[in-house]
Queue: 2 jobs
Job 1
Amino acid sequence: MYFRRLRDMREDHDLKQSDVAKYLGIAQTVYSRYERGYQTIPVEHLLKLADFYDVTTDYLLNRTDKLK
């Protein structure tokens, strides 16, 4: 599944994939696969991203349009 919102949120915060990957403690290539939907995002990373961007996990997963 392609997660457009992961990319949108990253770009809205003027971050590079490598910045977010460093925050998660993973390689940039792994994070890139998350954004493109080539690799499943572990729950712990999804939760960290939701906290980082101050949004819900449902928002990141495109299950709702409500930020919080």
Job 2
Amino acid sequence: MKYLKTLYVQVLIGIISGILVGWLLPSFAPTAKIISEMFINLIKMVIAPVIFFSIVLGISSAGNLKKLGRIGGKGLLYFEIVTTAAIIIGLITANVIKPGSGVSTQQIETNSKNPVPEVSAGVDWGQFISHLVPSNIVDSFARGDIIQILFFGILFSIALNKMGANGQSVISFFDKINKVLFNVLHIVIRVSPLGAFGGMAYTIGKFGFASLALLGNLLLTFYITGFLFIFVVLNLITYYYGFSLWKLLGYIKAELLIVFGSSSSETVLPNIMEKLERAGCDKSVVGLIIPAGYSFNLDGTSIYLSMSVIFLAQVYSIPLSLVQQLSIIAILLISSKGAAGVTGSGFLVLTSTLTALKIIPLEGLALLIGVDRFMSEGRAITNIIGNTVATVVIARSENAIDLKKYRMIVENKVHDK
């Protein structure tokens, strides 16, 4: 019975219970949605301040701005390389497995009742650049805009750094506030099994298993691709940097289950930051890489985007040449960054890519709406694993990790008390 007191076991029970309730009592879906949304809102209410204080404390602990620039530069380079690999793997597996073959375009008309979000035909780069700078930081905090909070946090940290010893009192005060916020988070996370239950009950009750049968091949291909990316690409990266992917996944297993149940990687953002710091990663790396990764290192989303383009081309029986597929890679590499931090960015990037190619009808997006909820779990899990690995890799490359502490806590499974 002692296992029932463990968080990941409780979350697993919540997920299984949610699937059963959603299947047997689909009418419970609206109530389940309320439960899920309340849990996500509980987490979101602390995300913005946690990110801000973590950035400020992390950069302040870096000691000098040169180190900050080096960490940021390495992070952006790593993000670009790994997301490129994710896009390429998505294209390859979609071409090999061909999930769109045999799907009738009549099914698109059947699914047309699902509303496709209205998005622009392309990325407005002027708007994207201006979006980086908040016009009202209070509004940015209220909306939980990670990019704008990151930008303001970096500026605030630089200004605080220039104060030298006079800024220590502010840093000490912020550290105390951050500890209070994480205590709030510890209270909230205890109800995560209920949040996971609500998320799964809503998904199954609302969408059922019928849509799984309709596009089961696409879903299977997507999850196979995510599995290959995590256990081949990320596994090779972790092996090269001298740490175990399996042990790291074991360390964050509770968070992965919460993400799976809630279909949102945001629900564990503060938890992941705290766990990585506890495992010996430097505050300066965790405070910068995790928030930036949530905007620029969305590996699961990159796989989804590249695979969706090929899938829709197969549905419409449109052959894509090698040059056209290389164009898809180039477009996604640029547009995915341009849509970072924008609500509904997945469909924005997909729409802008299809518009740029000018060979695949945009109406096909309606077909993807029906199974998007089932794919969101895979996207979210891949995203959170990718950002966790990125943080440890950057910390390792910067010698900004206490390896002895990391080995003891992560690899010897000396986890939470």
